[in-house]
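Weekend entry, working from home. Most of the wet-lab plans are on hold until the incubator is repaired, so I used the time to fold the two sequences that have been sitting in the queue since the last round of cloning. Logging both here for the record. First:
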Amino acid sequence: MDTQIVAVFCLCDDMLKAIHHRDDPQSQIGNAEVMTTAIVAALHFGGNIEKARVHMQEYGYVPKMLGKSRFNRRFHRVADLFLSLFSLLGETWKTLNESSIYVIDSFPIAACDNYRICRCHLYRGEQWRGYQSSKRRFFYGLKLHLLVTQAGQPVEFFLSPGSYSDTNGLKVFHFDLPAGSKVTGDKAYTDYTIEDVMNEAGVHLSPLRKKNSTRPVPPWIHYLMSSYRKMIETTGSLIERLLPKHIHAVTPRGFEIKVALFALACSINYLVR
């Protein structure tokens, strides 16, 4: 854990220096310390910022730690920097992915239990209610749409309401990938129009085909695509392992920042174990 904390701090500090980010000279701690504490919370404390804040102070990693309220304000202020760090790691994974094979999928992130939907203050409305077909259950909250390499490293993600279908999510992905890359996914990502557009751009989308598909693929290709999908399922399991039973948040933005932190923590886990 000590080695991982030091490595996370070095990663955050180097990124801030690379983008020429400057801290306020009057600030008690730098943004690198704030980012490190938040990432440690996602890695080891189920996203509990307060436990991570106390841990970092008691063990001497950040002796001049901010109080609970001030740290929370700084944490929200640097939210965009977490996305920058995720993008930076994503570029690294794309460079290392010599096979240029990528996989897409979505995972439910529940904001509350089903029987508490009527009392949920974070989100209101039926657009947040989704269905998880693999477990045959409904959930209420967000969907995490993820693009990973063949080895499972996260490259791109975005959040959507729970009712958002994977087919619609396909239209939101940027697919900023090297020319000649191949992208696969489950049967829900079948959209021939998007496939044709992506092929023209040099990125080949080949999801698993339905039985009545007008563009069938040979059985051996279907087998390979099925084996690739196991990697994103593994990545989803790693994120689920980091998630607590309930993500504590007061506002929707706070909830979404924490979900993004778990995606970033999963990417860092591939870098520092």
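Second, folded right after the first finished:
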Amino acid sequence: MPEKRKSIFPLIFLLLAIALAAGLFYVNYKTREIYGFPGESLSSISALKHGFVLFQGREKMLATSPGSGLLEEKVTVETDQSIQQLCETLEKRELVESASLTCTYLIYSGKDRNIQPGNYTVPMGLNAIDVADMISDVTRRDKQFTIFPGWRLEEFAAMIDGLGLSFSAADFLTLATAPQETYREQLQIPPWMTLEGYFFPGIYSMKPDISLEDLVAEILARFTTMVLTEDFEKDLQSSGLTLHQAITMASIIQRETLAEEEMPIIASVFYNRLAIGMQLETDPTVQYALGYDAQKNTWWKSPLTFTDIEVNSPYNTYRNPGLPPGPISNPSLAALKAAVAPAVTDYLFFRAKCDGSLTHNFSRNYEEHLNFGCD
């Protein structure tokens, strides 16, 4: 009898080994079915270990996270951020159920090596695998760009073709020069005007597959949020200007100075001129009327000639009284605030200082103005 028992043990061990091998094979098969093959840099032992953890956590990894209630979330991958910190951020933002499992998947797949800094627009309704795949795919990183204060629409358009979006600069200009009625209603834009002046300066980050309409809507929404505050609306009402007039004045102020502390003073100069029936006589309006200067490769020709100042255009404030028909650039918030809340001065002139500071001397009369000339 003991001899029979001894002969059974090897069989039991064999069966257990077969069962274990079958189990490992099943786990390995299902893991690869769900998560794909492990990264090439991962050792066989590490692949088995990470794969087993992922197999156990497959329900959490395949579950759709409830999210924050928004349609999409912006996730920023910082330059000095660890993978663990990134995964913890995803869990806190309710984009994945488990930070540790998400990190394990990134390491298992080798995609942790592909993660690059930037912003990613993550739509709701994804599971943790989808989210991890997205933030490790640089082609799905947001397109980041800057609208600089004082740019005209054509300068922004020139940047579009280099962003790799689904539309061209020409497409953008077509829409921006003949905007949809919804944009006009939203921002009280007169029927004959373009979107010039309403593109709020700043840094933008947008998903790479964004449509032209959504891009414009997002930029205009930034204008609404940043500019049309309760305080600004109060100052606008006190100024007696329409929103379009205020933006027009701000766009001129913006082109005259980059020094924000000067903007209310320059605004006062222009309003003082208007109050006595004097023409604005501001070079940027002529530059806008002239358009692109191919010789100097700029939209803002400088210096202007006497012939330039005679250009026949409603935007030429040397020839036409009052404000030009519309904005000549896209002004900053500081310029917009200056337009509706100018300083109180008796200045009628300003002239660039001779020290290279790009700031100005202000004068009450033309004689003072001439005395500030540079030798």
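Plan for Monday: verify the second prediction. The longest helix spans residues 2-35.
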